[in-house]
TrEMBL record:
Keyword Signal: yes
Region (Disordered), start-end ranges: 175-237
Compositionally biased region (Low complexity): 186-206
Protein name per UniProt: Glycopeptide
Signal peptide bounds: 1-20
UniProt keyword annotations, A-Z: Signal
Domain of life of the source: Eukaryota
Basic residues biased stretches: 212-231
Amino acid sequence: MISTFTRITLSFLLFTVVYAEQHTVRFENHCGSGTPTLIQGANTLSTGQDYTSNGTFSSAIAYLQTGACGFNGENCSLVEMTLGNSHCVGCGSSVDISLIPPHAFNVETSFSFIDGCDGSGATCATKDCKTAFFKFDDNQVQVACQTDNVGLLITFCGSKASSSTQVSAASTAKHVSTAVNSRTPSSTTNAASISHSASSALVTSTPTPPKCNRKHRRSVSDSRRRHHARTGHGGLF
Ligand SMILES: *[C@@H]1O[C@H](CO)[C@@H](O)[C@H](O)[C@H]1NC(C)=O
Ligand SMILES: *[C@@H]1O[C@H](CO)[C@@H](O)[C@H](O)[C@H]1NC(C)=O
């Protein structure tokens, strides 16, 4: 006999398990060598295996360690990601590829949302690809997804990401610059990537309800792009 109390408890647990926010990052490496690496702050969370976060997964980076990459992906193509549920319109997940120095192209790098927004993503196959950040206001290369619990597939040397669907979201979320401080304090060379990727944290940490409008836009041209806020993104072809 299962008591009512037990049943209620079980239902609650089931509810919690089913509805807890989580995001999975998966790697596919078709390069034949190198080690997929997922870093958040000072922690290496994956060297190829799936990683699933409990809750929002903010300001993480990934790259293929081909031997020449620094801990924070210096000298290598960098995927920057924040995966989070949409607690407000325009909030949610945002991912991009960065080649802003000290990052530099090393291998073809792609990402694609999974478990939601499938097929939306980007591929940077060459050092002059149009789908990566080269400077901080290249916000159009960001790809967002507003689906809860989305995951991310990161592929090296073989694109899984089809041309991105325009999942555009322009929000007025403020750049939470303090998030920058949460990144690896030990590295001085990655200041650019730190502030760059840390800005993605803003989408989930904005205290005031952002007045997000989700008009489809190809670029963010307002002043906020100076702060490269994670707001705009557009077509990647
Ligand atoms: C998430 O929670 C599950 C279940 O409690 C646990 O097994 C897993 O290790 C957690 N993952 C992380 C990244 O903390
Ligand atoms: C990046 O490459 C340059 C030139 O090969 C090298 O001097 C530098 O140490 C590398 N940086 C890191 C962080 O590995």
